[in-house]
Task: structure prediction
Amino acid sequence: MEILDAIRANLLSPAVLFFVLGLIAALTKSDLKFPEPMYVGLTIYLLVAIGFKGGVAISEAGLEKVWLPALAAIALGTVIPLWTFPVLRFGGKLPGVDAAAIAAHYGSVSAVTFIAATNYLKAIDVPFESYATAFLAVMESPAILVGVILGKKGMKADGDASRTSMRTAMHEALFGRSIFLLVGALVVGALCGTDGMKKVEPFFVTPFQGVLALFLLEMGIVAGRRVGDLRKVGLFLLAFGVLVPVVNGALGVVLGKVAGLELGGATLLGVLSASASYIAAPAAIRISLPEANPTLYLTSSLAITFPFNITLGIPLYYEIAKVLYR
Result:
């Protein structure tokens, strides 16, 4: 009954309901559409706000508390693509470049799923480390780099010529818009500290939930338009998009406990491990592995894993953490 109550509470949160509203708009073929500049603006706002608040939290906590959980997050971002790649390559019989592209998306993280998880924990009064945003910042690049390396090796094995250099891939993984904003804002927040937060709090804190609701409305529309692609990705990727996040989520929770995080912090690390990127990773993969099929990696991350995580996954990972912490 506890997990059913948790799922119910999560499904009735404003963020999830706006996502569902966007899904309904797409499925009913409504003409509701966000202008591209507005979508970009919402993305920039969320990434900067998340990074800045995380940097302030690191400033307050001190690096001695952050380094070990951050190292665990980096390890997760590196290991997840390494184990999911052979599952996709040999279990799903996908071309090497497509297996690598999907693996990079699942090793990378979803900022919006992370925000939804923090909202969920706050709603049920479960405390968590305020510096948890740092995990979000450090998990992106390792996963993308590992995915690109696997993709280039996969193309060589399949006899395809690579059209982009490893230098280009590394530049996009380290300095792509999403990662640059997230890490840059994290550094700014760490340097400014609490005094800096007081000056920008009316902009980065008060409107945050409203901006998130709008963003999830747009994500619902985008995901709804990709529902038809589920027929193309097949049953294997459908199962992969649900089962692999559960495995990764459990792994993240375990490492969170080993790293000394509280119940809430371990839950958030589990959520990040279970999430799949649809902002940073697609941009990097499009440049570094243009041969990869976008239908496969976008549909699996955005139309399968993202809806699963924000509706059922988040309370599930919390229940896994509760069992472990007992």
